[in-house]
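Example complex used in Figure S2.
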Amino acid sequence: KNQVEQSPQSLIILEGKNCTLQCNYTVSPFSNLRWYKQDTGRGPVSLTIMTFSENTKSNGRYTATLDADTKQSSLHITASQLSDSASYICVVSGSGGGADGLTFGKGTHLIIQP
Amino acid sequence: GAGVSQSPSNKVTEKGKDVELRCDPISGHTALYWYRQSLGQGLEFLIYFQGNSAPDKSGLPSDRFSAERTGGSVSTLTIQRTQQEDSAVYLCASSPRRTSGRSGELFFGEGSRLTVL
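Predicted assembly (231 residues):
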């Protein structure tokens, strides 16, 4: 069964600090992995996409990594800001399976404190 | 429009009533998805439309739930005889092409928050 597990479930850090969110998956065959950011009361928005051949990709203060061998991805946030407070959702796309091949993690709820 | 539009943004209804939730996808997007997000929970897949193909209804939780997509554009999610456990945010997303096996990004609406009293 395709699964995506995210950790931690929730995280509180002080403004300016760094943090790393984890995503482990068992989706097979693997196509790509996306990280979405969901602000409170809003719909999720894509931050970055990782394909099989990519190990790391940056989008501003966000850096995503992918280890296709261990089936793990991480999202590192540098110099956190209050606006980074949100839920971060890992979505893995496979070539088969239901729901159009998309498997969602439950998300990590990140709170940045001043 | 510039993005995915959902209406109503908030809906309060009484148990047993029917509700309709509407989604206007981004123009030209062939794929449309409905998800449900309960408080503090992840996104739960409900139904997926792709072009003129038969929809994937595998996520609908019961026969009280149905959805249609007219003219390959606007979609309506209908919940009949609502129950308190139906209370959640219903999110619609569209994508320009099939995501299965591709890198298609989902563009989400702001959601419709349903409260069943």
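The mean pLDDT of chain A is 92. Chain A touches chain B through 29 residues (CB under 8 Å).
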